[in-house]
Each structure stands twice: as C-alpha cells, then as structure tokens.
C-alpha cells in the first residue's frame, strides 16, 4: 500500500501542471487548450484509451488494471475557470485578463492527472479506472456534468460508481471533510419583473413606482425563510440582481429582480417555486402593479450515498489517519453539478483542505500546491480500496 511520501514525489510535476493551467484559464465549454493539455499528458503516461470531445471539450480516459476483470469506477475532475479579474498577485497569475481559476479546478485537474500517472505506471488493481475530465461546471444549464451524463458516459464506459472532490479553504492541508447524505445544496434561480407605471421622479404620485414595490418584495421574500419554513431546515433565498432606470430623474415602468434559491431537498424547492411568486404578486398588486415570474431549477443537491461515503472516508483515513478526516463535515449550501452524476450512480464527494486561503470565487483565491499530494493520494487510495480487494 502506498504512503503520502509516494505522492509527494509527484508534487513538483503536478505543481507545474497546475500553475500552467492557472496561467491559462478557459471558460465553460471553450476549453480547447486545457483539453489538449490534459489529453497530451494522459497519452504521455501510456494511457491509450482516451476519448475527447465529450460535451464539446470533456475527456474520459480508461486505465485497465493488471489484476483481471472487475468493476469500472469513475473519478471526476472539473476543468473550467471563472470570469473574474485575478488579484492573487502570484507569479503564475492568469495571463487572460478577466478570467481566472478562482475555484480550484486547476488543482482538481492536476490532482487527477497525478493520480492517472501513478495508476497508469502501476496498474496494480483489477477492473478499470475511468478518468472523467469535465468542462463547464460553473455555467448555468446545461452544465458539463449534465451533458456528459446525457451523452451516456456512465453507460458507455460501464461506470458502476463515481467519485468527486473539491478543494476547501478553511480546512487545513492534509485534512478531509465529508458526510453522508446531502453535502452541498441545490441551486435554483428566479427572475421577477415588477410592472408598474413610470414617470418623472419629481412626481411620484403620478406613477405606480416599481422601485418601491421591488424593495418591498425583496424584504418580503426574506420572511419566507424566517417565518414560513422550519428553522431546522435549510432554505436560502438571496436577491442578487436589481435593474431599474438609468437616470436620476426617471421612475421606470419596470424593475427586474433576480436571485438564487438554495435548499437540501425537493420539498423546499417546491415551496420556493410556489411561494416566491405568490408573495411578490401579492405585494405588487397591493400597490396596483403586477409581476412576471420565471423560476429555473439549475442543479440538484449533491447527495453522498452512505455506503460510498464510508469507502471515501476509509480511503482518506488510509492516507492521513483517522484524526485528519472529519466524517460529519458541515453541509455547504454552494451547488455542484457533480450532483447529476450522483443521481445516476452511487458515489461520494469529498472536500480536501486548502488551508487558510481566500474563499473560492474570490479574486485573491489561489490553490495551495501543498494540497496536491493529498488529492492525488486520495484518488489512488480509493482505487486501492475498491479495486484491490
């Protein structure tokens, strides 16, 4: 069985890969350079079954073990960056203004590449490892995971269970966090158009002011969380966009409100989809206005199968010891499109520590390369546990 020192030997090379990807971020499905880089590295490891062009720029590569027949397990990493101006001030900062790897996907890709190199060299397992390099995790529907599932990768490659990981600022390097059941929230989005009657800002009495109505709606939506749902359940309603007139002296005819809903279960999704327009319309009509409403279900909650979670915990403990693995980590209300793969196959999703860094999606964020051996090692330990038994 391998130790963490084995994976530290890969850290230097994986750091070079990670920093190259960080310097050259690409967005959504437009990952031509990233996908080419990944495919070339996989081929250089002696992996000869590499399928590209899945969901435009996604990749699935297969490593067959030398131990004979066995199941196929999927290991997934996301590859896309975000449209954020970087402020990390690192020597390897983004060379593409306006784009940066602010969520650690450069590190996720490098860790899976490191595991691929080790597994391709040793092949000391039975069955097959399917390496899934996914585009477009950060986009609205259809996201990369959903498209890869829709294009049939789980059936086509015979994947029986699937695993994912994400870097976690706030968890110390060398430590892991996971829990059974929901580990990340669902994401739904909504748009409300408040339809009033505009006019001159000096004569508000001659208007049905949609700005004032929108303000009342925004406040009213918060009462859905604080007064209409069980405080022990998880519901987040956040208004994130507000669009009104472009001039100081104009009251517009319409105001657009947009936001996001996060939950851990479909019951609260149904509640939000039903009650948000009910509250908004009631407030608007009380002022003599009305609304248009659109609700979009984007990503379901990420649900860890309890049995697969135990496997993931054991793999982490085999790498770093029991005291460094929190198997009851606090649930995140962030969303993750890996949920689509977990809807189709049993599996689990784990957090790997990135230390005391800036949060993900922050312009100052950077992946800590000291975390690389732990991610590489967890992938390998997972394979050893599932396919070498």
UniProtKB/TrEMBL annotation:
Question: Entry's Pfam families?
Answer: M20_dimer (PF07687), Peptidase_M20 (PF01546)
User: Is Iron-sulfur among this UniProt entry's keywords?
Assistant: no
Domain annotation Peptidase M20 dimerisation: ranges: 190-270
Query: Secretion signal: which residues?
Result: none
Q: Which InterPro entries match?
A: Amidohydrolase, Bact_exopeptidase_dim_dom, Peptidase_M20, Peptidase_M20_dimer
Q: Does the keyword Hydrolase apply?
A: yes
Q: Which of UniProt's keywords are assigned here?
A: Hydrolase
Task: Please give the name of this protein.
Answer: M20 family metallopeptidase
Task: List the taxonomic lineage.
Answer: Bacteria, Pseudomonadati, Pseudomonadota, Alphaproteobacteria, Hyphomicrobiales
